[in-house]
Amino acid sequence: MNQMNHPEDAPEAFQAAWNSHDMKALAALFHGNASFVNRFGHYVRGVEEIVGLHAPIHATIYSESTLDNELIDATPIGDDAAVVHFWSRLSSGPAHPAGPHAVDTLILAVLTREAGEWRIKALENVTLTNPRTGEIVLRDDKKTA
C-alpha cells in the first residue's frame, strides 16, 4: 500500500491516498509516531490522530476533492532521512461549504527509512496567501518554485 520506494515518491503517494479518499493508504504513508500540521496550523501526533484529522473531512467537505502534487526537491540529510518539499493544489468539489474552488499549498515533509521502508516522520502544510490581505494565492506557473 505504501508506494514510497524513495523520498521523491512522497508527493505522488500522498496525492494517490488523498484522491482515493483511502484512510488506510494515508495511514501507510506515516510512521506510527509521525506529526502532522494541516494548512490551518492544527498539530497532531501519531498515525491514528492523523487519520482522525482526515477521515471526517474526507467523508464530508472534501469527499469530492483532489490533490495535484508536484515535487520541488528532495534533500538527503543522511542515508535514512530526507527533507522533501512539494507543491499541492487542492481542488474541492460541491460538498465544500465554499463550493468548488482551488487552494495551493507548500508541503514540507521529513521522511525516514526504518526497516527498509520510507515513511513520513513529520509533515507541515502551508496555504499560499497574500500577506497583506490574507487572500488565497494560486501559483500561476506550477513549474516555478
Automatic annotation (TrEMBL):
<feature type="domain" description="DUF4440">
    <location>
        <begin position="12"/>
        <end position="120"/>
    </location>
</feature>
<dbReference type="InterPro" id="IPR032710">
    <property type="entry name" value="NTF2-like_dom_sf"/>
</dbReference>
<dbReference type="InterPro" id="IPR011944">
    <property type="entry name" value="Steroid_delta5-4_isomerase"/>
</dbReference>
<protein>
    <submittedName>
        <fullName>SgcJ/EcaC family oxidoreductase</fullName>
    </submittedName>
</protein>
<dbReference type="Pfam" id="PF14534">
    <property type="entry name" value="DUF4440"/>
</dbReference>
<dbReference type="InterPro" id="IPR027843">
    <property type="entry name" value="DUF4440"/>
</dbReference>
